[in-house]
Amino acid sequence: MSRRGFIAGAGVSLASLGLARSAAAQPAPPRSIPPVVFSNFLLFDGRSKGLRGGLRLLVEGNRIKQIASGNPSPPDGARMIDCGGRVIMPGLIDAHWHTIFAALPISALVSADIGFIFLAASAEAERTLMRGFTTVRDLGGPSFPLKQAIDDGLATGPRIYPSGAMITTTGGHGDIRPLSDLPRRPGGPLSALEKTGGANIADSADEIRLRAREQLLQGASQIKLVGGGGVSSPRTTLDMLTFSESELRAGVQAAADRNTYAAVHAYPPAAIQRAISAGAQCIEHGHLMDEATASLMADKGIWLSTQPFVSDEDTTPLTGQSRINLLQVIAGTDTVYTLAKEHKIKTAFGTDLLFSSAIATRQGFMLTHLKRWYDNADILAMATSVNGELLAMSGPRNPYQGKLGVLEDNALADLLVIDGNPIDDIGLIANPDKNLAVIMKDGKIYKNTLPA
Fold first, then answer.
1. Is the bond preceding 145 in cis, omega lying within 30 degrees of 0?
2. What is the DSSP string of 115-169?
3. Whole-prediction pTM value?
């Protein structure tokens, strides 16, 4: 394989790797795992304001079979885990993550061999899981092969709800083609960026339908449409608009035809309102929204998936227009959360950390920023049950049928045991190596430091 990069080179198509299949197709063979019984813990179920004790939690296969009070007899052959009074809670969910782009600098993404890029993403996926994030919603990038490898047990990482390539316009956020690729004639050959699945460029409603349907064909659980400029695209500004309302509607309808939804990247009021008029059900970011836009979102029940960027420390170093865009986002963070809380907008937690393995380690720390607006129980709920509700919007396109973000009977068995009480101290989440005693995903234990 030639040393051509993820963005700059021709790459390897998913079809040629034999990895472009439906997200729900051919699940991994059933694993023979003995039942697990957790005892002596305090339960945060993902919804409640407080903790409950005096319970036992039984996991059978990949489901929570029962949470019961008292001392019920364990099943034959069950593995017993005494939590020593620690807190047990649902696995964390990041509603805005980029599995392929999180850890490598953009210089590597545009120059390194595609095999190296996927190996690096696989390594970061394992670190993501070990930070306690058992599920991520991927909002742009060719995460389908890695998702399949994780689901089939060939790699370790979180559950992935993939969007596939983000769909943008010429000159929109995500269009980071070299200028040597221009001019491009309508319907002309795909750029290297598009061939590798980083982004798709569409400049008409018909192109948008085509690109959205291609992502759904590969197993996208939702579609990502770009409604304006973005921080990491230095040739864009946050005030700009991309798709027209009719073009956005084409992407939204393509998703709705497959019984799922489209999330629209948008910062300013005009972009957000245009996306809502086109039928979008989820807005990504929204940091520049105003009162009227917040009221509109609340009235129509539109989801806000946003991120608590509060300082330069939350991103890699930026210069030029990207730096200007970042400062606008940081300045708008207090506004977006204040408006979301005031208007009771359905708000999901995500991090959108990019291009640095060091920055990616802040994934749990980002939760602590939310203390400026929410109490700890609400923060934990946002990163578990609330995000789980957003994931469920994928409907039949949901690759993991079952409840996530909650601990209750018949929910999927994704859980953490924490050495301490995160309702008292949300900062415990920021140090997973020290404070996460048990990490379980899909009924399988990936970490256990408790005494035998």
1. no
2. HHHHHHHHHHHHHHHHTTEEEEEE-SS--HHHHHHHHTTSS---EEEE--SEEE-
3. 0.93
